[in-house]
Structure formats: C-alpha cells, structure tokens
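It would be a great kindness if you could assist me with a short task in structural biology. A protein sequence and the structure tokens that stand for its backbone fold form the material at issue. I should value your view on which stretches of the chain appear to form regular backbone elements. The record follows directly beneath this note.
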Amino acid sequence: MEVVGDMRRLKLASHVGVFASGVVILGLWAFRPSDSYDSGIQVAFAGFVMVVVGLLGLMMRLAARDEDIFVGPLRLFATICGAVTGGYALSHTDEAWESTSTDPVPMAPTDQIVTYIEAIAMLVFAAWGVYNMILAVPARRATAARDKAWPVTAEVADRVRRSRGTVVFLRWVMPLPPIVAALVAGFAEDDGFEIRLLFTPSLLLVGCAIYFARTRFDPAAWTAGAALAGAVGGFHIGVYLTVLMMWDVRSAALVFIGCSAAGGFCCRWIAARGRDQVLKPYTRDLVDSPIEVPFASTHDRRLTLNVGTKALSLSRDRFIRGDRFSVVFSFADITSAEVTTVAATHTLHVHGVFNQTMTVHSGPAVRIGLPEDGEWIFPTDQGPDVVHIIEARKQAFAAT
C-alpha cells in the first residue's frame, strides 16, 4: 500500500496551520485599524499572502489524489514564495518604527507571537514539501521514461491530439485574465503600479502549468483542478473590479461570489469537454496507453475506480457529506480481479481506509483481491473491461 494515513494527516495539518495563522494575522490588523499603524499594514500583507498560499495548499490536498506526485514541488514553490514575500514585508517594519513623519505604533506583543506562529507553520509547510519532493524524484523519473517509450495506438494518439487545445488552455490561457486584471488595477492607481499585485495571479499561472502538465495522462483530474483555478482566478478578478469601481461591501461580496462561481463553472466545463474527448467512448485501445482510466460505480457516480499504469485507486468525492476518501494500492499488491454478481444490497468496509464504508447494491460487480485477505467489491456494468485492463496493466507493471 502506498498511502500512509499518518503522513496524510500531518500534511493536511500543515496546510491548516498555515491557513489559520494567516487568518489570525489578518484579523489582528482588521480589528486594530490605524493610519499610523504601519507594522499592522505589513502584518496584514504577510497574512494575506499566507492565507492565499495556505488555502491553495489545502485545496490541492482536497482536489489531488494521493498518488499524484506534483503536489510536493508545487507546495514547496508556493511556500517559498509566501515566505519570501511575507518576510520581505515584515522586514520593513523596523524602518516604519524609526520613521518620525507618521509616528508609527510599534508592533504589539500579540502580533509578534502570531508572526512566530506563522513562521513555524511555514517551516512545517516547507519541510513536508521538501520531504515529498525527494520521495517523488525516483517515481517521477521512472514515469517520464515509461511515458516516452509507451506504445500508443493511432486511436489513442488521435484522442490526445484532439484534447491538446484544452490542455493548452488550462495551462496557459486560463490563468491570464487575473494577471491582466491585476495590471489594469495596478496602473489605474495614482501611486503607480505595485508588483505585489501580480503575486497570486503569477502563483496561479505556475500552479496551472505544473498541475496540468503532471496530469496530462489523467484527464479525470482536469475538472477539479480547472474548477479550483477558475474560482480562484474569478475571485481575484472580482477583487480588482471592486478596487476600480469603488463598490460598497454588499456589492463587492456579490461580485466576489459571482466571479468565483462563473470562473469555476466555465473552466470546469471546458476541462470536462477535454476529458470526454480522451476517455469517451471507452475502448480497449486505452489499455495499452499511459492514460489513467476511471470507472464510475453503477449506483454512485462519485465513487470511482481509477486504473493507472502502476497503481489502482478507489476514491469517493463527497466532501460535503464528510465521507470522502481515496486509497491506493500498487499493482504488486493486487492479488486478483474477477467479475462477480452481488445477490443483495449490503454495506462493506473499505479495505485500506479507516472507518469508511460503501454501499454495494445488487447486480454485476468486480471483485478485486487485496493484501491481508482484503477485497473491494466495485459495482459496475463494465466488469469484463475493468478486469481486462487491470490484468493487462498488472502484467505490464510486473514486466517493468
């Protein structure tokens, strides 16, 4: 088994810590407004940076499946940018204190404590990023070499070619509107353009470029990433529109929500079209390809069995209901795969996940044998296709 529960919980805790520390720092400044409180302005900026970085990191953990190896490097990059930008802002507080023109108020002890908490959270955040990036290096090299040498049929090559425009849009075009909006809003200010306005849009651009490059053979992961990136980009467009138009708080809130929803919906729709161009209709040509093939459960469309090139994963994306999970087993751990029939509806424990169950309805299904006498019963009408692709990719994995 490739997923370690304690490690996943620590990663998630690091993101929550960064996000919470940024919220606290921002809150301290918001409840102590003062024109001369220059240190508070710097703390607010650092807090904003860490809120964005922490929220993006937390959303990446929710949107990306555990076997994706792009998360480590992207987490590290986001953390370094947040630390450098926030640290640069905080380093100028001493200059503000020494200034006599505005008579600034020194940073309060509570602000200093929270700043230290933020620094500790950033260190934990970065340490886990470095650790995962080091662990991912051998797998990344092996995957890249295998993808280059992978034989692809003419039909699969045609599917990938048709979706190439979608991938280019998701990687490079989708993050551009927030950058343009930041430039327009920045140059519209009387004080001149401030480079910090480009920080989050640039981070979004880099994140999209890395994410959709890493998942180019996993079209099922495009929709979640596109929806998240579109919502973040739409939110920032709403922020810059509010700055330019000088709207009141109620109007600004409606603009934020509307732009986020529109951006997330439109980008997800485009990503879904590209996904369907690659995965639908399912044919056995996809078996001998590097494309990760998802199969949806018959009675629960959010329960999916994802057949990759080196591992098999079972995931359920129902975060609002609190029963979301994702568990991965290497093909070396898969003992068998066979078509079966479920006689009556019943509830089973999900092997490999603590305290999670799934309802298996009567009808055709696939039984997958797992280590320690475990098994998955996956309801599907595509039983022969599922068994065929698992057995074929298991043999290919064993051969490598």
